[in-house]
Amino acid sequence: MALNLKALLGMLFVFIGCCSNVVFLELIIQIDPGAGNLITFAQFLFIALEGLVFTSKFFTVRPKIALKDYVILVALFFGANVCNNYAFNFNIPMPLHMIFRSGSLMANMIMGIVLLKKRYNLRQYSSVAMITAGIILCTLVSSGDVKDNTHHSLKVDTSYSDFFWWSVGIGLLTIALLVTAYMGIYQEVIYKRYGKHPSEALFFTHMLPLPGFLIMAGNIVQHFGIAWSSEPVAVPLLGAIGLEWKFPLMLFYLLCNVVTQYVCISAVYVLTTECASLTVTLVVTLRKFVSLLFSIIYFRNPFTLNHWLGTILVFFGTILFANVINQVRDAYRARRSGKGRFDTAPVAKKVE
User: Which of 10, 29, 156, 183 could bridge 270 with an S-S bond, Cβ 3.0-4.6 Å?
Assistant: First the structure.
């Protein structure tokens, strides 16, 4: 069956929103690698305000899921996002960050075996072994070229090496990967109990953690100061009427990152409701690969032959786990057999 317009638009905006989001994230990280908490806070605040107006309607709409059931989900979601973004503060390059986050299937399998006592077939074990090997290879290769990327205004003398802090960053990414996998399992439990309410979940998972940012308020204010003092750029709209207003470049990138993050999340939610899981897996995997290529080519991030080998293992492992090849082949056969029942004999002869 052909994809509907809503699904096609969802795919389009996954690429536009998610790919551009990664671009703006890397632009921010190039200016201030330690801005992870500022980025996370800005994203949560924007999505919470949007949900307050359009989903909750200023808390006049009663939630379908009990607030007490959101508590664990919110804690997991908040922790995973903080760890993912804060990892940039520990000398983690963007390509390695993207490859590491592509290991979600590996984490999901570990959680499935440990918590749900699930059993998997040989194909799934093989695919996860490929993903694990790819991530380990990329990590080991990256460990040989670790550089301190701390913003010049925040550099401090420390007795620990750059490699030590890089290892802390890898630890944060590992924790985020496992927490995200557990969050997926917990989400399934909630959805089975209450049904799926993606817009509501999006709002509450971004609104409820906002007080948690008070813990890192000092860090957020510090990096907002760096953003405010970044190179100014002229705003074209005001320049057109003779007014010149300079806007800090990093704040502009931050605003674009927040908006594209919202577009990305919304588009993925559309895909999950309009498309089969196979389609979602293909689109998201391809999007990650495009983002990785852009990061390597445009931002000239170092990427060796071993990095490419690790990347191929990760992405082909993902495709193997989702059984994409067999499902595409079966869909093609079903379509051909379907045509055979309705086509006339002359046409069938012509096709042969």
Answer: 10
- Give, in degrees to the nearest 5, the angle at Cα 138 between 132 and 144: 135
For residue 176, what are the contacts with CB-CB under 8 A and spacing of at least 6? 79, 80, 81, 83, 84, 87, 101
Tens-digit pLDDT profile for residues 18-59: 999 999 999 999 999 999 999 999 999 999 999 999 999 999
Q: How far apart are CA 18 and CA 3, in angstroms?
A: 21
Nearest to 280 by CA among 234, 222, 324, 230: 324
Q: Which residues contact 82 (CB under 8 A, 6 or more apart)?
A: 36, 37, 40, 216
3-state secondary structure of 248: strand
Amino acid identity, position 10 = G
Neighbours of 317 (CB within 10 A): 25
Closest CA to 31 of 213, 252, 291: 252
Residue 189 tokens, joined: 């439990």
Kindly report the backbone phi and psi dihedral angles of residue 155, in degrees, each rounded to the nearest multiple of 5, phi listed first: -65, 135
Phi, psi of 72 (to 5 degrees): -65, -45
With a CB cutoff of 8 Å and minimum separation 6, the contacts of 333 are none
User: Distance between CA 181 and CA 103 in Å, rounded?
Assistant: 10
d(CA 104, CA 110): 10
Q: Output DSSP code: residue 18.
A: I
Q: What distance in Å separates the CA atoms of residue 216 and residue 214, rounded to the nearest whole number? A: 5
3-state secondary structure of 166: helix
Strand partners, 233: 247
Helix 104-115 / helix 122-143 crossing angle, nearest 10 deg: 130
pTM score, whole prediction: 0.83
Q: Return the amino acid letter for 351.
A: V
